[in-house]
Amino acid sequence: MLILSLDTSTRAGSAAVLRDDGVLAVADGDPSRTHAERLPAEFDAVLRAAGVSLPDIDLLAVARGPGGFTGLRIGLAAMQGMAMVTGRPVVGVSAFEALAVAAFATLHVEHLRIGAWMDASRGEVFAAAYEATGAPGAVPTLTTLCEPEVGAPAAVWSRWQALMSSAWTFTGDGAARYREILVGVPVVPPPALAPAVAQLARRQIGHGGHAPHELQPLYVRRPDVELSAQP
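Above: the chain's sequence. Below: its structure in token form.
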């Protein structure tokens, strides 16, 4: 199965082409340019690097958040349009889960408790935690330990410490930014997420892909436009 995947949950983001779980090409985005400026040229570049064309693709995958509101909407809209044009199935994947899968792959372990922290701006992080189990280097099975939330890093860390009965690892740009709060806890540098997005989508496709209009972002925090409309 050939999979084209996209992550726009961070300003840089990434795109990738995988054959099953094997990465054929991956490209980190340019954070100095917006996602709107870079797409669809980013797709063309990663497809060329993989030596395939769009009609060869069997499955489309996209990170549905959390992340910046504008970036997520652009990424989802791009994949929705591509799905409608090609008739290929499309799957939306949690960026939190992609972070956990990507971190697990780098550590070559069979069991890992991992906190995924993404920079939410305003001095906050988007946060979720998972238990990952599987063969070293393989795509693990994830069990949710802490449901997605948004909050001040110190407050999230304080709540989570009650669960720290065994060793944890953290990852994500939020963990990197607020590293000083995570005293004594290893932090895996945030990876390009597009490959992990594709790997998770491949497993979810067994439950059926989404119709393009069914793709919905995972915001965790309500968009600013909704918050500013409150009385």
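The chain has a mean pLDDT of 91.
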